[in-house]
Amino acid sequence: MIAKVRRLPRFFGAWVGLTLWLLLMLLLALYPYTGVSSLTLFVGSQVFVLVTLASNWNLIGGLTGYVDFGHAVFFGIGAYVMGILVTHLPLLISPEWSFWQALPISGVAAAVFALLIGLPTLRLKGPYFSIAMLGTFVVTREIVRVLRPLTGGGSGLSLPPILNRLGDYYLMLGVMGLVVAIIWWIHRSEFGQSLIAIREDEIGAEMRGINTTLHKIVAFMIAAFFTGIVGGFWAWQNTVIDPDVVFIEARTVEMVMMSMLGGLGTVWGPPLGAVIIYFLQDVVWGNLFGVHLLVLGVLLVLLALFLPEGILGALEDRSSTSIGRLLGRVTSRGRN
Amino acid sequence: MIADTTEQPLLEGRNVSKYFGGLAAVNNVDFAVCPGEIVGLVGPNGSGKTTLFDCLSRLQKIDSGQILFKGQDVTRARPYQIARMGLARTFQVIRVYRKMTVLKNMLISHQWKDRSILRMLQPSHVNTERRARELLDFLQIAHLTDAQAGHLSGGQRRLLEIGMALMPDPDIMLLDEATSGVNPTLIETIKDRLRVLNAQGKTFLLIEHNINFIVDLCSRVYVLNHGEKLAEGTPQEIIENEAVIDAYFGS
To answer: Which of A71, A153, B204, B212 is in Cβ range 3.0-4.6 Å of B38 for a Cys bridge?
Structure first.
């Protein structure tokens, strides 16, 4: 006989996560009023960007189980759409767009691209999908480099420099708050549970009445939409974009690493992983410049070996990993 | 329950063929299952039973022939579409969602009743959960409700898979070796549960190596050998059929 799992009352258990998240959002919204420096605001918006990216990657890579090694392509598309729309380019007849007009288009463009590329690639299973997406990423970068009249080619585009640290902070706080809340919602909905079913057994899911193609495409498009939004924002904040700063493999690796560290397929894992990785990178970058990539690479290997389910995954299923068992001994009594 | 075979078949295959390269896995097979029947599908290993199942449930495209379900041509339907029409199946290699709890496995298998986008954005309905718990009780695995599916024994997983197939209240169930790897007591449980379900009007098509199981449950049996239909008849006729004995034990 398997013992019953200790559970919180249903209502409390279901909503506690979102309530705490909204509370945290409120605190972060009040934070700038404590008189922080503009550098702190900048750091804040960067962390929010990473949390958003990690959560989005997790939707397709963690929840649906389609490990996307080219997800930064949507970031790049968002950034370039922003860049093209706000700089006055001869190809466009209308005058340049404002940031607020261009931002949603960045997301929509990424989502449409996800639809077009997802229809063929999401038929592929496991590593074949990952490699196809990596290929998509590299090809898109080269196309951007070649389309000189539209994208400025290798030298890229310069966006109007408008510095608004407080605005950036609040915008990304809002986007992050929304994205994580959406992921939380998806996770508890039948849609999200269907995505997990697809991850666990796609043929079984299809045979039990789940339209797997539609589910995967929709998840992929949502993940791409917000990644595109973040890309658009990043281009605006960074003011200079070119293929080599926008389309970098490290950005995808970062998303994968943050999701893995926190816990693939969990709601709160990727945000946690993103925060840890950001500050870890900061420390490593500051003290070990030159070998920082080496350190992060080793960390990724260690993660895959010892914490494949991430921090939250190990806490949830303590018996499955050595670190999980250790955590279990330290933090719980009588869970079994 | 012996069905009236003059009525329209629920599930029908006409000249179904499936080739893997030059190998005819299923070759020109005709068959029909009528509402309320329990039909057995037997044959030596590699005779094409599971391939026929895969063709019927649309996981495999057929190379020629026609498949009808409830009188509709479903030869080109997608698996989820035929599932939503009321066909459920289990698999020879058990397919459960290993990292979900038993209850969540059940809930997410309730897929095609009153589906709308609004519904999909919400957690499973309380009625769905009630049905899941009732079925787990019916299959005598209620004590495992909160266990992770991956931690269950083979036999318990078979029962869970049957439960998942039952969740949407299908009209026909295709069970692929529901008793393999299951201990004798549990086999009796499964047999007993299938009888109850059949009495409630459910139709079954069973792939089975356990001949007693077939004799006890089925009203008709098809025998496949090398992808072709070798014989068809009542269980008694089949176990006395020379050609069938030859195919199983060699001549």
So the answer is: B204
pLDDT tens digits along B52-90: 999 999 998 999 999 999 999 999 999 999 999 999 999
Task: Look at residues A213, A232, A247 and tell me which one is the last residue of a structural domain.
Answer: A247
- The residue range of the domain holding A136 is 37-247
Contact B127, B214 (CB under 8 A): no
- Do A170 and A58 reside in the same domain of the chain? yes
The pTM assigned to this predicted structure is: 0.89
Task: Find the mean pLDDT for residues A153-159.
Answer: 88
Q: Are residues A200 and A263 in the same domain?
A: no
> In angstroms, how far apart are the furthest CA atoms of chain A?
73
User: Does A201 sit within 8 Å of B124, measured CB to CB?
Assistant: no
Q: Are A292 and A281 in contact (CB under 8 A)?
A: yes
Structure confidence at residue A1 (pLDDT): 41
Residue B72 forms part of a structural domain: yes
ipTM of predicted assembly, 2 dp: 0.89
Q: Quick: pLDDT tens for A91-107.
A: 556 667 888 989 999 99
Q: Which helix (H) or strand (E) holds A220?
A: helix A212-238
Total domains, chain B? 1
Is residue A80 in some structural domain?
yes
CA atoms within 13 A on the CB side of B16: 33
The answer to whether B121 contacts A190, with C-beta atoms less than 8 Å apart, is: yes
Residue of B nearest to A63 (CA): B99
- Give the end of a domain, one of A212, A247, A282: A247
Please, what sign has the CA dihedral across residues A227, A229, A230, A231? positive
State pLDDT tens for residues A284-313. 877 877 787 788 788 888 888 888 888 887
**Closest residue, chain B, to A183 (C-alpha):** B121
Question: How many A×B Cβ pairs under 8 Å?
Answer: 97
A5 and chain B: CB distance < 8 Å anywhere? yes
Chain B residues near residue A211 by CB distance under 8 angstroms: 78, 80
Number of domains in chain A: 2
- Asked whether residue B6 is domain-assigned, the answer is no
- Inspect the interface and report whether the beta carbons of B112 and A209 lie closer than 8 Å: yes
Query: B223 has which bridge partners?
Result: B42, B231
Residue of A nearest to B124 (CA): A190
Q: How confident is the model over B2-40, as pLDDT tens digits? A: 445 457 899 999 999 999 888 889 999 998 999 999 999
Q: How far is A43 from chain B (nearest CA, A)?
A: 34
Exposed/middle/buried for residue A159 (C-beta within 10 Å: 0-12, 13-18, 19+): buried
**Residue A243, domain member (yes or no):** yes
Res A313: pLDDT? 79
